[in-house]
Every structure is written in structure tokens, then in C-alpha cells.
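Researcher: Good morning. I'm working through a list of sequences from a screen, and I'd like to move beyond sequence-only analysis. For each chain I'm collecting a predicted structure so we can compare shapes side by side. This is the next one on the list. No need for commentary yet; just the structure.
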Amino acid sequence: MTAFKNLLTKDYQTVKKQLFVPLWIILGLYVIFTFSIIIAYAKGDANLVMGGIPMELLGNADLHRAISFALQAGLFLGFLGLIFAIPMTVLSATLLNSDIKHKCELFHRSQPVSVWKNTASRYVAGIGGLVGLAFLAGLFQLVAGNILLAILTPMKVDWWLAFNGFLLSWMHLSISITVLGSLGFLLSAVFKDNAIGKGALAIGAVDIAIVIMNYYLKLGIPALSKNLFKLVYSNISDFSNVFPTMQYGIVMGSNARTTGDISAFTLPQGFLSGLYGSVFTWETLAKAGLCVALYALATFIYKKREVQF
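Model: Good morning. C-alpha cells for this chain:
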């Protein structure tokens, strides 16, 4: 356990700069967003509306509660999701081949630690580290965003539903970026350098081959890239399909014709249990098993890979 802890500390120090890139981006964007809101209010240009109806005219408490949930869920998946998905792709594809670049692979391979502990430490520090930081970033967004809404708008924030919106989104994002990171982890074992570029070329070559086969053999084989995208993001798509804004009939945007359309909304009892049900599914369990398999395969390839001096 002590050896693994030391490995984890070493690997965390190695990837620390890359781990914190998303947090600096989020902090910078929040500073810009906050100043923009303050300037807009100072000029009298800020006006929070829903379907063309000013928020202060909407007295329906359930509507405000539902918006509290939807804002956090939507912002986390749409805003933080991309910010963490890109670093996950880049970082995970270097976890097992960075030693070659730094010319220290022989040193690390010669340490009295099993290769499985070595790769597990890198997996946890890199992929697990980004998942953990996404949670912290989501908490920051939850608190900062709701405080701004409460101060600068007539929005009646429901902190409990807002927290659940964040938590559910983080769970779904964690599943997606862990699968994405596991694929990158495998690429870092297969390719000794430029794993992302070579992996993309390999996938592109397979897609071209599939297109040719489908054309000449009249087959209907789906593209590999399309299947990989679906594999990574299917749970997020499933979650968005059970958002309150879709399943439970909140009228939003151009569909809101009158104040009555929105103010008559009632938030169904127990809707959160259905949303949590979208996390704990057989598909999630299958993806967890896939991540374990990808990790094991990457470790096996890394173990058999020729050491670079």
C-alpha cells in the first residue's frame, strides 16, 4: 500500500499541471461572465426572461425549482463537459508513453513495483484526477452560479434541486469521460508517441474501409467513429431525454405563448428517482466492465512493449 501511495504521489506530481488546466479555464470564464452580468445590470440591459415572459412575472414556485435543477444540469453537461472532455482526451493518451518522451522509461520499469500497480497509479492519477476535479468544479459552479442568480435576478433558487442537477450531471459526465479516458489510456500503450493523431488516423482508415465495403458489398456496417462516439456519450444522451424540460412538460423558449402556459406547470412528485434511475443501469455496469477491460489490455500491451532507452 505504501509503494502504491508513493507511486500515486509521483504520478500526481507528473500530471498536476495538465489536471488543473480546466480549473483555470473555468475560473477565467466565470470572471468574464460575472463582469459581463454586472456591466449589463449597470446599463439596465439585463432582463431574465422565459419564453419572452419576464421572470419576475412567473410566481410558480415549482417552475423556479425546475429551472434550478435544469440550469445546473445543463450548464454542467454543456459547459463543464467540453472543458473536461478535451483535457481527458489529451492527458489519457500520454499516461503510458510519457516516460519515452522524458527518457526515463527504463528507470521506472526497473523499480521493484509490479507493472499493474504502476499502470493503476497512472490511471487513477490522470483519469480519476480529472473526474475528481470535475466534481470540485461542479460544486464551485453550483455555489457561485446560484449566488449570482439569487443576487442579480428574481430567480428563487432551490438549492436542493440545484445540487441534484449538478450531482446527476457529474455522474453521467464521469461515466462518459472515464470511458473516453480508458480509450485514450489504451492508445497510450499501443502508440509510443502522438497517440491521439495515430489513433485518429487508424479510426479514419477503418471508417474508409467500412465505407468501401458497404458500397461494393451492399452492407450496412456502421462507422467505427460513430460507434465510439455513441459508446462514450450514450448515457448523456439518455439523461437529456429524461430532463424535466422534456419529459415533464416545462414549456420553454418559443413554445411558451402565454404566462399561463408556464405558470400552470407542476413538478411531478418523485421525478428525481426516475432521473437517478438513468445512472444506475445495466449499460452503466457494462461501461464499467469495459473500462476495466481497456485498462487490463493497456497494461498487458505496456508490459510487453519494448523498453526505449
